[in-house]
């Protein structure tokens, strides 16, 4: 028996002098099978066997399902991030005439800080390295930021009579977080639109608020607060998309995937 490939969607099998038509997948179907696979390490895996990129689980790319069965801690981490960032963003933007941000300290320490930190630990246990790194880091940010305005830590007291040094010190602190956020942002471009906008607005917000502390510019402070508020809204969307399903809600926020920019393959695929 001999078998030969053709460019038609059918193949011909020669058996005992008789020619039989055997249905075969055409080039488009074969190409579809190839493009529906991704490389994890050195292994090619079908996308249906992997977790899709989704902001609601803070998953920036196709990844294997975790071996352990846990709840979605990413949704909790996103809620802690969003509510705390939303509140601080409005304070910094001057909403309701508020100029002193100390009202967010309790929220920063216990929800944005402690709860988000614990959510990150849970994500690390669930083998989600990106979510774990992100939540543990930003949970630590909120704890450290809140500590600045707690008198017993003595941070503000150390700068008594030197407001310029305090502004520059906090500005450098925020710039460091802006650089870290920019690094994380580069990992999100294969994920979803809300995911990307969350990190872009958060990153720009860090730099604007840093500029406000270092220069005393009220415009930078207002703009930074507005950007942080937008970032928080993106986080809220992401949180809801991670917990809403058709079984528990009439309103389901879908993941809006980013387009994948990739050069088309020039390899000619022949039906097998």
From TrEMBL:
Broad class of where this protein is predominantly found:
membrane
Question: Where do the segments described as Disordered lie?
Answer: 1-36
Membrane spanning stretches: 69-92, 104-124, 130-150, 170-189, 195-214, 221-243
Q: Which UniProt keywords apply?
A: Membrane, Transmembrane, Transmembrane helix
Coiled-coil segments: none
- Is this entry keyworded Zinc? no
Q: Which PANTHER family match?
A: ACCUMULATION OF DYADS PROTEIN 2-RELATED (PTHR31123:SF1)
Q: What is this protein called?
A: Uncharacterized protein
């Amino acid at each position: 028996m001999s078998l030969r490939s053709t460019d038609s969607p059918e193949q011909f099998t020669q058996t005992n002098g008789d020619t039989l038509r055997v249905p075969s997948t055409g080039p488009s179907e074969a190409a579809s099978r190839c493009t529906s696979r991704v490389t994890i390490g050195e292994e090619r895996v079908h996308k249906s066997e992997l977790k899709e990129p989704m902001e609601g689980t803070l998953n920036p790319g196709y990844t294997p399902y975790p071996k352990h069965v846990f709840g979605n801690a990413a949704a909790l981490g996103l809620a802690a991030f969003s509510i705390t960032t939303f509140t601080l963003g409005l304070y910094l933007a001057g909403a309701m005439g508020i100029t002193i941000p100390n009202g967010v300290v309790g929220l920063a320490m216990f929800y944005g800080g402690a709860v988000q930190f614990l959510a990150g630990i849970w994500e690390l246990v669930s083998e989600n390295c990106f979510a774990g790194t992100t939540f543990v880091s930003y949970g630590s940010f909120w704890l450290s930021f809140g500590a600045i305005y707690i008198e017993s830590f003595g941070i503000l007291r150390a700068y008594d009579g030197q407001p310029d040094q305090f502004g520059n010190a906090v500005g450098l602190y925020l710039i460091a977080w802006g650089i870290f956020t920019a690094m994380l942002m580069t990992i999100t471009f294969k994920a979803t639109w809300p995911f990307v906008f969350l990190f872009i607005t958060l990153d720009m917000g860090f730099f604007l608020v840093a500029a406000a502390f270092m220069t005393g510019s009220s415009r930078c402070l207002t703009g930074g607060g507005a950007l942080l508020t937008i970032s928080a809204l993106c986080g809220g969307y992401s949180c809801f998309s991670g917990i809403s399903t058709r079984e528990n809600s009439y309103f389901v926020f879908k993941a809006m995937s980013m387009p994948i920019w990739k050069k088309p393959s020039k390899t000619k695929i022949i039906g097998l």
